[in-house]
Amino acid sequence: MKSYTVAIVGRPNVGKSTFFNRLLENRKAIVDDVSGVTRDRQYGIADWNGKVFNLIDTGGFVSGSSDVFETEIRKQVRIAIDEANAVIFMVDVATGITDLDESVADLLRRSTKPVYVVVNKVDNGTRELEATEFYSLGFEHNFFISSISGSGTGELLDAITADIEPVDVEEAMRESEVPKFAIIGQPNVGKSSLLNALIGEERTIVSDIAGTTRDTIHTRYNLFQKEFILIDTAGIRKKSKEKDDLEFYSIIRAIRAMDEADVCLLLLDADKGITAQDVTIFSLAARKGKGIVVLVNKWDLVEKETNTARDYEKNLKQKLAPFSDVPVLFISVHEKTRIFKAIELGLEVFENKKRKIPTSQLNDVMLKAVQAYHAPVVRGNTVKIKYVTQLPTHVPSFAFFTNYPDDIKQPYRNYLENQLRTQFNFKGVPVRIFFRKK
Ligand code: GDP
Ligand code: GDP
């Protein structure tokens, strides 16, 4: 699928977060806790009439003087302009145009990407008149909305998604013939080193084909008679010295790469251990239904005793919970340890993602699991599961037919998922479970 990302920028308290949450409604955002003056960033997947895009709330600021705000906001605006496909510039009708708004507008005017000026808190007719003040900022696209009531948001979303292709259901169901892998992770974990190591060893690169967006490069490989495509997010490497900015860049790029991939090879730095940003990237990939292999790189730097790898993996999986049925491999790109094993695991996960269980076998196994441990009685109702079938989707999805679909709670859902995982191999693949009325 083509990747499309919209970033929301603006000064604190204009209502970015309120707007963001309204758009995502019941699909919860993934919150990335960032240190320093920036408030947590939020990442979400928005769906407007079948048009899907990534939405990023660049965050607010916890404290600081207006000088600090200004520097921080300008940095975020630059990152948004560089890495997103479109920018929502949110302002507040209650305060009118402030100096900080002017400063952000100056930066955005130089951008060639679409900018949507969104005047928020336009809760009534009087405020609508006041909102026209913002036309003086000189942008082409202006929208008046109330994030609290939702008024005006439909028109805005129609405009934002005008150029996005709706999800083609048939295309989404068609499996990639050649698996597409994205190497993702934070800055300095060794992504380019791994890519180079693979290219260096592999002499039979078939071709360089342009990616589906101009920002990714798809390179086709042929290794042990297996073909695969590696997706690289090309572009200038930002030389920002600020750790926080680099992390933000890397997350937006990871999103772009994973949107086009079947399986994500998530690299971590063994020496640093797993961080909040790693978990953010992992959760996004899982939410998007991507296959995942976790590669703990720079294993050469770790002093090893008998149980080091085992303990490391255990700790890692605790941080990744609830989705911890993923392959974890300890590699060293420098010492060329297990880097081809990484590709093999990627291919295995790709096979797991395509796995279709015949209905009779599925029912044999899963109805036995239901017999062994029944769903708890709810409000005096005996919950019966009568039948299960795998849906023809590209993320393994299972529909359980039952008399009380709304009465089955998370623990039982987890039980069924665990049974599916134990009985059939879905390692590295998110699995979806639905309950339907029968
Ligand atoms: P952020 O710092 O830009 O993310 O702003 P928040 O989303 O935290 O909102 C700041 C304040 O503005 C909160 O008190 C919100 O309830 C309020 N707010 C957000 N949207 C609206 C709106 O459409 N109308 C009104 N009247 N208040 C709003
Ligand atoms: P990227 O930003 O994720 O693409 O990371 P790079 O590939 O540029 O690597 C960042 C740094 O980590 C470089 O100095 C690499 O030489 C180093 N590095 C990469 N892989 C390994 C490894 O397996 N072991 C060690 N010790 N260093 C590594």
UniProtKB/TrEMBL annotation:
Every EngA-type G domain range: 4-168, 179-354
Pfam families xrefs: KH_dom-like, MMR_HSR1
Binding-site residues, GTP 2: 185-192, 232-236, 297-300
SUPFAM superfamilies according to UniProt: P-loop containing nucleoside triphosphate hydrolases
Residues noted as binding GTP 1 in the record, renumbered to the chain: 10-17, 57-61, 120-123
Any one GO MF annotation of this record: GTP binding
Residue spans crossing the bilayer: none
PROSITE patterns (alphabetical): G_ENGA
Keywords: GTP-binding, Nucleotide-binding, Repeat, Ribosome biogenesis
One of the protein's GO biological processes: ribosome biogenesis
Subunit organization: Associates with the 50S ribosomal subunit.
HAMAP family: GTPase_Der
PANTHER family: GTPASE DER (PTHR43834)
Primary role: GTPase that plays an essential role in the late steps of ribosome biogenesis.
Membership in a protein family: Belongs to the TRAFAC class TrmE-Era-EngA-EngB-Septin-like GTPase superfamily. EngA (Der) GTPase family.
Name assigned to this protein: GTPase Der
The organism of origin for this protein: Sediminibacterium ginsengisoli
Species lineage: Bacteria, Pseudomonadati, Bacteroidota, Chitinophagia, Chitinophagales
Gene designation: der
